[in-house]
């Protein structure tokens, strides 16, 4: 079965892995620090709470095809995928402050977005995938966290 934050067990796995992350965790790829990654995930989840509005990113391929491939083909996302500047901590993303407080804020966001995922039915657009169903958002939310936690070996 595909993992999703709609599953309490899958959500608990992500929270447990976040607990294993340290400010000095070494990245396996990319340029973000562990602390920047925490803020990056939070910014991504803020899209679901309407606290962060992101414009669609221009993309040459049909969004529907990319969305299906990214969310439902059971392979890990590749390393070094570019992000939109609004979610990039070196550009317009939220700047890290205190590691423990930022991780706690991320866990609260996980609670917020999983409390009632149906509220996202007519919600925000994903910058790459466009309009998504609540189940697609919860699948993306799991994959996004998993991708970046693997980036730091947790």
What do you see in this structure?
This protein is an all-alpha fold and 154 residues long. The protein has one domain. The chain has 5 helices and no strands. It has helices at 8-20, 34-46, 63-72, 99-115, 134-151. Helix 2 (34-46) packs parallel to helix 4. The longest helix has 18 residues, at 134-151. It is globular, with a radius of gyration of 14 Å. The two termini are 21 Å apart. The model has no long low-confidence stretch (mean pLDDT 90).
* Terminus-to-terminus distance: 21 Å
* Poorly predicted ranges: none
Instruction: Tell me the domain tally.
Output: 1
Q: Write the element-wise H/E pattern from the N-terminal end onward.
A: HHHHH
Q: Helix/strand/pairing class, anyone?
A: mainly alpha
The biggest beta sheet is recorded as: none
Radius of gyration: 14 Å
Question: Count of helical segments?
Answer: 5
Q: In percent terms, what proportion of residues is strand?
A: under 5%
The 3D shape can be described as globular
Q: Which descriptors would you attach to this protein?
A:
5 helices, mainly alpha, 154 residues
Concise structural overview:
This protein is mainly α.
Write the layout of secondary structure elements.
Elements: H1 8-20, H2 34-46, H3 63-72, H4 99-115, H5 134-151
Helix pairs in contact: 1-5, 2-4, 2-5
